[in-house]
UniProtKB/TrEMBL annotation, chain A:
Keyword vocabulary terms for this entry: Phosphoprotein
Task of the protein: Positive regulator of sigma-B activity. Non-phosphorylated RsbV binds to RsbW, preventing its association with sigma-B. When phosphorylated, releases RsbW, which is then free to complex with and inactivate sigma-B.
Residues annotated as domain STAS: 3-110
Lineage: Bacteria, Bacillati, Bacillota, Bacilli, Bacillales
Segments forming a coiled coil: none
Name used for this protein in its record: Anti-sigma factor antagonist
From TrEMBL, chain B:
Keyword flag RNA-binding: no
CDD domains attached to this UniProt entry: HATPase_RsbT-like (cd16934)
Protein name (Swiss-Prot/TrEMBL): Serine/threonine-protein kinase RsbT
Domain Histidine kinase/HSP90-like ATPase: 35-129
Organism for this UniProt entry: Cytobacillus purgationiresistens
Pfam families registered for this protein in UniProt: HATPase_c
The organism's place on the tree of life at top rank: Bacteria
Xref: InterPro entries: HATPase_C_sf (IPR036890), HATPase_dom (IPR003594)
Lineage of source species: Bacteria, Bacillati, Bacillota, Bacilli, Bacillales
TrEMBL record, chain C:
Molecular function GO labels: hydrolase activity
Stored PROSITE patterns: PPM_2 (PS51746)
Protein name: Sigma-B regulation protein RsbU (Phosphoserine phosphatase)
Pfam (any one): SpoIIE
Lineage: Bacteria, Bacillati, Bacillota, Bacilli, Bacillales
Organism: Cytobacillus purgationiresistens
Length: 110, 133, 336
């Protein structure tokens, strides 16, 4: 049960890539790492989840929080690299309609 | 003969002096080796807390004679930042240094009586007593 | 002091016997001795001290160096004793917390308790099992004057105590809006406002709210990001997903929800669930939707309550009796 968070934060763009499993145990780490980044005015944030093999609702909560924060700071928020399973999660929850998600990423298998 | 002697705690080596003082008094009063070891462990913990969190302070060892009983009291005094939530530091498992078994609840268990007084910004005063059985 | 003397004579016996014949028997006795001393919470340094004084007594020519070497061991063991006593106390605290959680779980059950109503022409089964003590899932039935039944099924993000606390808020809000119970969209829109104002940034709730009209057998429902339900068509022997779009509760202040309808024929079923059902995981991975459908199908001839019970039992077994998430399954079956 491990998680890897990579952040590339520069002036204009905040690129984040996450890999591993996002669940009750790893979500707090994700939350602590990413939430502060979303509090920058007009932040432009892209999160790549193509390395995520599992995510539960706690993980989804972290992205909801990120999205709300970015929106409150008039920034841009985008999630890429969703597997078909995660894509379904975003669709069921209605988040796909308000968060910019793109399932098309290189090597999206299955 | 004086009933109280003190050691200033400024660095880690002073912990050893405080232990030595405590052990000498404990021996003199007739405490057995097990209780000597407990008393010195309590002194170590208290002195270490001073050195880690208050920066400086002192450990005093007092011989106690009360109602025909003989005892040893450790007094730990510092003028450090003090403790905000006494209840929290007296709880097992709460330890900012993260050490196993470390902390004030352990000291309390090693000794017979324990008293703590602390005000934020005003330092901490701890007294722990062990009676000779 | 009697007790101490007893301990000491027992220890002496073991030590003397072992030094005489080196037998396994004596070693086994010492193992038993350690268990007894732990039961009586004798700290390790006491044992070392006892050992030292016995050695001095049994071997008058025990050198001072050998004697003093025990001082080191004693000092080290005081440290272990220190940790041991803390451990004992933490164990005690843990027991207290466990008891407290069990009481809280009971309080929650009473607070959130709902009776599965008996409705003529409709067979209802429901099961909800928390992964830990407290349940972050919630379901509620209300039967109104003309016999229609409204059903709420909700899931708070996460599990355990935080989820359960949040769920109590939902229950309270639901109770205080009886006048719009008849409109699923209004219920969700009202709850959404409450949740949006009262939850933490990363918290949300999913809910499906539906009303089963007993007169025309129409199931009217709306969903706030909830795990989709299933519809079983008895004449075609076919499952389809109950489509429903809608955003999670607590994300935006003014979310509007859409209402959907499904006509239910005799023998048909409406199946509602929390994601604890679809997110069931085994060693090999997720339990496929087909597995769930085949489990329902296998039990389809039974009463609704028996179906949900059996499906839960089988999924529990598949997961090695270790639930990953709170599990709720509801089945409404129109009687033939």
């Amino acid at each position: 049960m491990n998680i890897n968070i990579n952040v590339n934060d520069n002036e204009t763009l905040t690129e984040i890539s996450v890999s591993g499993e996002i669940d009750v145990y790893t979500a707090p780490k994700l939350r602590e790492t990413l939430l502060p980044l979303s509090e920058k005015e007009q932040v432009d944030m892209i999160v790549d989840l193509s390395g995520v093999s599992y995510m539960d609702s706690t993980g989804l909560g972290v992205f909801v929080g990120l999205f709300k924060n970015v929106r409150a700071h008039e920034g841009k928020f985008k999630i890429i690299g969703l597997s078909s399973r995660l894509q379904r999660l975003f669709e069921i929850t209605g988040l796909a309609d308000i968060i910019d998600i793109s399932s098309k990423v290189e090597g999206d298998v299955k | 003969m004086e009933n109280q002697s003190c050691v200033k705690i400024l660095n880690e080596w002073d912990i050893v002096s405080a232990r030595q003082l405590g052990r000498n008094v404990a021996k003199e009063l007739g405490f057995g080796t097990v209780d000597q070891a407990r008393i010195t462990t309590a002194i170590s913990e208290l002195a270490r807390n001073i050195f880690l969190y208050a920066g400086q302070g002192q450990i005093c060892i007092e011989k106690m004679y009360k109602n025909g009983k003989v005892g040893l009291r450790i007094i730990s005094l510092d003028k450090g930042p003090g403790i905000n939530d006494l209840r929290q530091v007296m709880e097992d498992g709460y330890s900012t240094s993260g050490g196993l078994g470390a902390g004030l609840p352990g000291v309390k268990r090693l000794m017979d009586e324990f008293m703590i007084d602390s005000n934020p910004g005003d330092g901490t005063d701890i007294q722990a007593t062990k009676w000779l059985r | 002091m009697d007790f101490r003397n007893m301990m000491e004579s027992k220890y002496r016996e073991i030590l003397v016997n072992y030094l005489k014949d080196g037998s396994e028997q004596a070693l086994y006795q010492s193992q038993k001795f350690s268990r007894n001393s732990m039961e009586d919470s004798i700290p390790p340094e006491e044992i070392v001290s006892m050992h030292k004084s016995l050695m001095i007594e049994l071997f008058p020519d025990f050198t001072p160096e050998m004697q003093e070497s025990f001082d080191i061991l004693l000092e080290v063991m005081v440290g272990y004793g220190f940790a041991y006593r803390e451990h004992q106390n933490l164990k005690h605290i843990q027991q207290e917390l466990r008891t407290e959680m069990e009481i809280a779980a009971n309080v929650q059950q009473t607070l959130l308790g709902t009776k599965v109503p008996s409705v003529e022409g409709l067979d209802i089964g429901a099961i909800s099992v928390p992964a830990k003590h407290m349940n972050g899932d919630y379901f509620h039935f209300v039967k109104d004057e003309n016999g229609s039944v409204s059903i709420a099924i909700a899931d708070v993000i996460g599990k355990g105590l935080p989820a359960a606390l949040c769920m109590s808020m939902i229950k309270y809000s639901m109770d205080s809006l009886p006048e719009n119970r008849k409109s699923p969209t209004l219920v969700l829109e009202n709850l959404n406002r409450v949740v949006e104002q009262n939850v933490d940034l990363t918290m949300f709730i999913t809910m499906l709210y539906g009303i089963y009209n007993i007169e025309n057998h129409m199931f009217t429902y709306a969903s706030a990001g909830h795990e989709p339900g299933l519809y079983y068509n008895a004449s075609e022997k076919e499952f389809t997903e109950l489509t429903a779009k809608g955003l999670l509760l607590g994300i935006e202040k003014t979310t509007k929800y859409r209402q959907y309808e499904k006509e239910v024929s005799p023998g048909d079923m409406i199946i509602l669930m929390s994601d604890g059902v679809t997110e069931s995981r085994t060693e090999e991975g997720f339990i496929e939707r087909e597995t769930l459908l085949s489990l329902i199908e296998k039990n389809i001839h039974l009463e609704a309550q028996a179906i949900v019970h059996n499906v839960y039992k089988e999924l529990e077994k598949l997961q090695d009796f270790h639930l990953q998430d709170d599990f709720t399954l509801i089945i409404l079956k129109r009687e033939v």
